[in-house]
Amino acid sequence: MPAEPGGSIDASVYRRLVESSPDGILLTVNQRIVFANPATTRLFGATHSDQIVGKSPYDLFHRESHLVMAERVRRLRRGDAASPAEAKIVRLDGGCTDIEACAVLLSLEDETIQVTMRDITERKRREARLHQSEERLTLAFAGAQEGVWDWNLETGAVVYSPRWKEMLGYGPDEIAADVSAWEQLLHPDDWPTAQALYDAVQHGQNTYEGELRLLHKQGHYVTVLTRGLPIRGGDGRAVRIVGTHLDVTERKRTEMALRESEERLRLAFAGAQEGIWDWDLETNTVVYSSRWKQMLGYGDEEIEPHISAWERLVHPEDRRAADRAHDSVSQGQQTYEAEFRLRHKDGHYVHVLSRGFPVRRDPSGPVIRIVGTHFDLTERRNRDQERARNELLAHLVFVQEDERRRIARDMHDQFGEQLTALSLRIASLRQACGPRTDLTAHADALDEIARHLDHDVEELVWQLRPTALDDLGLQAALANYIQEWSQRVGIAAALHTSGLLDYRLASEVETALYRIAQEALNNVAKHSRAHRVEVILERRTDYVVLIIEDDGVGFEQGGRAGTDGRGFGLVGMHERASLVGAQLDIESTPGQGTTILVRMAVPVASTE
Asked: Are 396 and 388 in contact (CB under 8 A)?
């Protein structure tokens, strides 16, 4: 580059510099344009600078920019520096172009001003798009009620949006722009979660998301869903995270209420032991609950969610009853109810009571869905069968006792009369024999046979139905039986009574307790090898206790009933106790004897 002596640059160089500049440059003298470089000519849409030179700048700038221009000129006249300003020029074709202009006062005397202009149309367009994008984002966040945060991981500075602060009850200037403000608000129990999120980002994870609790200005905690996008430097290390906070407190409260409601419903159905089904009649899909499947022995994945599963499992003989229930609902019935059998996984059938509620799109429309429950009737049917069995057994026992009583009285009366007559005849025969000893021996033998027969009849009558039980009551009958039993089997036995006095219990109760004592003593005689038996009969305030305790060999409880003959007797005692509402317990240990305890709540019986 040629230079003049003394280091100055040739003026032509400056001209070439101005003319080649991409920015528009013009000179004004006394508010008239005296020079315009080619870039300026292009800015105004002119083909030659003569189309611009000689005009006032106010003719070429849009009237919206005139105030800005006048303000800049006044500053220049005062000697102040004029900062760049945005303005709008009017091209020769009438269109407008946004520019950024910078003015310099070269001579105050003739008011020579150099104006440099740069086309900022594209920048303005980008700024407009950015503004629109930011506006949309702001509206989106406002609509979503999310707060925005921008965390500089290197400095700890955080920009919290107004909505972020508002969510916690704070004003725009009440939260410091630092991560320490967030740390002070974080719930102590959520520190591990927050640290884990931070560590995951530092180890390369591209998302930052979790639920945390932040302290509200009023003292309660707000649950927020925080989501962020890590921004990484050239070395891949996260240097910044930009994200949002969404207040999910109400959602969490709703979810908790829903969980509690579902838990109550689940517990209610679990307590009721009912399975739930939801049948879509339009698609024939059916949602079967886990309990529904468990009732039939299946796991969650073993029953397809379709009506075909039910059709496959229902007993063929019960299909018609189920179809009738469905048809009744289609015809307007308000409830669906049917009993049928479903095949269990192991092959047997389970009786279920199916009850449902039909759903219609409108009151007069067709049923589109039925939601209902299945109740396993097996236990109820077993109880009904057990109750029927007990009722039948009770009836048979009471009939048996009545028949025993009748037979015993008939035997006592009829055989007694006949045996008395026989004894009298044998006595007469003995007298008629006189001194003949051979005939007298025969008479004595007949008399001995008659006495044994009388004893056997009395024993049989006693076994069938002791008259003392009907005439004197349980206490007297037991006393007689225990004394006779002790003499007969050779085992010492004692009866201890308390609280009964002259009170009588109901006839069926006395009979049941007597038979239980009788069976227990028979077991002692057959199996216990006992030396002594204690029988206790007590009437307390509102119940009666019967205890039979021996010092025999005892037995191992839980063994197979009937293996030594004892089990059948125990079963019989249990059945007799249950018939009158009594509770029977057996305690036995090998080598330590056996205790049978019967307890029954009873009212005071009438006296006789």
From this structure: no
